[in-house]
Structures are given as C-alpha cells and as structure tokens.
Amino acid sequence: MAEIEEILDSDYWKSANIIHDLDVTAYVEGLDDECFWRDVFRKYASSLRILFFSYSRDGKLKNGKPFVLNDENLRNAGKNLILCVDSDYDYLVGNQKLSNPYVFHTYTYSIENYKLSPQGLTSIIQKAAIPRDDQKIFSFEIFLSEYSKYIYPLFLYILFFEKKKLADIESGLSPNEIETEAFLENPHLNEMLCVKPSQVDALNNGKSCLEFIQTNVASLVAQLNEKYPEIELSEVEEELEFKQISETEIFWYMRGHLLYNCVITIIMQALIKEYRQETINSYKTQCDTTQREQKVKEYKNKVKDIDWKTLLYTNYFDCLTFDCCPTLKYIERDITAYLKSQVGLSVA
Q: Which of 52, 140, 158, 163 meets the CB 3.0–4.6 Å disulfide criterion with 34?
C-alpha cells in the first residue's frame, strides 16, 4: 500500500478541491491565523473559494509554522494548495522558503503586529471608553514611533543572530549545535521589555513606559556590545534600508506577541479604566443631582458590554478596512500575482 506521503501530491489536492467545490486548500498555523488569513483573502480575492485548514492531515493538533512549511507541504504547494504563515524574522533575514509563490506570509513578525494598528488602537479607546470631546487621547502613533526608535539598537542584534541562525541551519548544523544568545531569548526580553500598569502615563503618551524600555534596551545593548565587540551591525542596517524600513516602523517587525501581550494590552487596560473614571467624575461635577445620576447611569450602560479585548483581538480589521498598514500591500501584491498566474482564477 502506498504511503500517505506519496498520495497527498498536487493531483490529490486538485481532486479534493473539485469534490468540495473549492479553488484551493490553505494550510495555516492555527485557529487565530485561520481567521486572519480568511479575512485577508476575502479582502484581496473575495471570489476565491478556500478551505483554511489549521490541523495536520492525520487529525492531530500539529499547529505551527514548522508543520505548515515542512518539506512535504512545500513540495506539494501549488495552484491547489497554498501555505499561509507568520513571517517571524524570516522575511527580514532572507529565508528562501518564503520566496515560494505558493507561500503567503505576514511580512510583519506575526498577525499580532497587525492588531497594533495605531489608528485602530485609538478607535478602540473611543469605542470602549467614549471619552469626552475635551479629553486628550493617548497617541498610539507617537508611542509606537518612539517605541520603535528606542528598540532599534536591540532589534539590530536580534536580526544579526537570526541571520546567523538561518545560516547555521542551511549549513546543516543540528539544533543543539546552533548558537543562541540568552539575552535575546523570550524569557529575558519579556522581563526587560514588559511594562507595568503603574508606568502608564496617559497625558504624556506613555512617556514613563518609553523611559523604562529605553533604559532597559540601553542596558541590554551595552552588555551585548561588551560581549561581542567584533560584531558589525552595518550590514543589518543596510538590509533594513533596502527593504525601506525606518527606525520608526520597527513595531511592525518586533516580536508581535511580546508587544501585544506585554505592552499594548497593559496600556489599553489602564487607559480605558482611566478614561471611563474621568468621564464619570466629570458628570459628577458638571451636572445637578438628577442629571448626574441619569448621565452616569447612561454612560455605564453604554460601556458595560463593550469588550475592548475582543476589539483589540480583531484590530487587524483596521488595516484591511483603511489600508493603513504598510506591509499589507506586499500581501496584496503576492495574492494578485498568484491569481494572475493561475488559469481560471481572477482578481476580486
């Protein structure tokens, strides 16, 4: 009996898609990714009938990029099977797996980065807290731009070691032979770069958070400079310039999970709580007793059922709706090229 690996070739996927009245099957990393990629293709190729599949073919939970981009899937990828993944740092360091025309990737580090659209974050504040017209609203544009500039020196080191790791993998080194840097591992970065609710400064666009991050980044970079005096980062900088990525845009490419969970979620929670309380306090001081109770009750009823965490979770819609996220144009370009190269498929 033929092995299942021999059966699941391009002809198999063509037959499966015909049976299920589909144009293509898409492997994605997980359920969250399934939602994102479905909405992306709905935006840029709405007529394309796609089955998004986040599990391995044997029914086991084998989520994640390595399973999507395994050798077998890359061999079978084509008109009838596409692969959709987070870029991580692979786009920036030139991993050739992403150059496959049937591999679609985020260009940002992960889908979480798209949830950090600055305009979308402001919109969430307005929906979830309904601040007064005279309240000064936190500028996420300023915050994320400043965050990017402060994180940039550390980001260069991250890319340097990611590029070295890719070279080691391509040279055939086993995982235990690949050099890693503890200063740049997730546990240490989380410890150094996660902000605290007490640091959130609404009036100064997160100045206290930024000062905390700047101080810790400077400390980390100093340690790396001392440990690796021979490292030259100019090549990494040149590659960023070649990809037209400026210092103020690094938040699109930094580890999305860290920025989402350890920075923006903390800031959002503190801001919404503060804006809601400020609005309630304003009603208590500006209205007479009857109006005050009515206004406070009305306001609480308006905001009590607004789940800001869900709004944040789906904030990538802001990128798709208003075309305000720069790397989306690359995904659109890739989808358009895929459609044009396939007989019988057309751009939406």
A: 52
The Cα angle at residue 316 between residues 275 and 159, in degrees rounded to 5? 105
Does any domain span residue 262? yes
In a domain, 241, yes or no: yes
Query: 175 CB contacts (<8 Å, ≥6 apart)?
Result: none
For residue 181, is it within any domain? no
Blockwise average pLDDT, block size 10, the chain, 348 residues: 45 55 86 94 94 67 81 91 96 96 98 97 95 88 98 98 93 85 94 96 95 98 97 96 97 97 97 93 79 88 94 96 95 96 61
pTM to 2 decimals?
0.90
Q: How far apart are CA 331 and CA 97, in angstroms?
A: 16
- Please tell me what DSSP assigns to residue 249: G
In a domain? residue 348:
no
Same domain, residue pair 62 and 87: yes
Q: Quick one: 71 exposed, middle or buried, by C-beta within 10 A (0-12, 13-18, 19+)?
A: exposed
- CB-count burial class (<10 Å; 0-12, 13-18, 19+) for 33: buried
> What does the alpha-carbon distance between residue 331 and residue 106 come to, in Å, rounded to a whole number?
7
Cα 274 to Cα 338: distance, rounded to the nearest angstrom: 47
**Beta bridge mates, 52:** 26
